[in-house]
Amino acid sequence: xxxxxxxxxxxxxxxxxxxxxxxxxxxxxxxxxxxxxxxxxxxxxxxxxxxxxxxxxxxxxxxxxxxxxxxxxxxxxxxxxxxxxxxxxxxxxxxxxxxxxxxxxxxxxxxxxxxxxxxxxxxxxxxxxxxxxxxxxxxxxxxxxxxxxxxxxxxxxxxxxxxxxxxxxxxxxxxxxxxxxxxxxxxxxxxxxxxxxxxxxxxxxxxxxxxxxxxxxxxxxxxxxxxxxxxxxxxxxxxxxxxxxxxxxxxxxxxxxxxxxxxxxxxxxx
Length: 270
Description:
There is one protein chain. The chain is an alpha/beta fold. It has a domain at about 95-165. The chain has helices spanning about 50-55, 80-85, 100-105, 120-130, 150-160, 180-195, 205-215, 235-245, 255-265; strands spanning about 10-20, 20-30, 35-40, 65-70, 70-75, 85-90, 110-115, 115, 170, 200-205, 215-220, 225-230, 245-250, 250. The chain starts with 9 loop residues before the first strand and ends in a 6-residue tail after the last helix.
């Protein structure tokens, strides 16, 4: 795993986000490094989904700063995020069963030549992308998505995300519905993305998956980022404590802040 220290590719500083009177993100700092897998962990309602939607431009944030490759940026919507090279693979994958792999990978971004779909180029690009990720479980890029296994679908969704010269790939629970063998294949692919130089964010509740592939772990607790640490510097138990209590030993919230944070808890799933 790549554990070298380097300048973050994407950095969030002091991010706040509320929905009416409900404060969901509180002064969140979050950084993502190229060539590394950063696991984003937290209980239901911790703010993971809201944070990702702020990064993707689906939600606007109330205050805070975004920096990309060291420069301040503003993300007004999903197109701005995509133009920067930020791609998100959501848990539902957003694939169309009635289309084949090539059609899914280029859906909404079709290549054309003289107003006609350029199928040979799209097929070649899809095949090259899968090959670059060392994907060997897909027999043909012209397979219908409906015929693919859960692991193969996840692979196609990830390949679709990296097809467009992506720099940041955010994966939302990529192994949640998979068996043991398919989970291993997807985790290998996640690791390969980082080894190819991308900045990868892995959102997961599975601590075994987190420790299997992650270089760094960022723990959210009730809308606050309570720790960002190297995976090799913490144990499973410490991360569980950070997720459930916001503190583990010297890590996390200061003791005097725990009671105040608990009182602010609103119990709303975000």
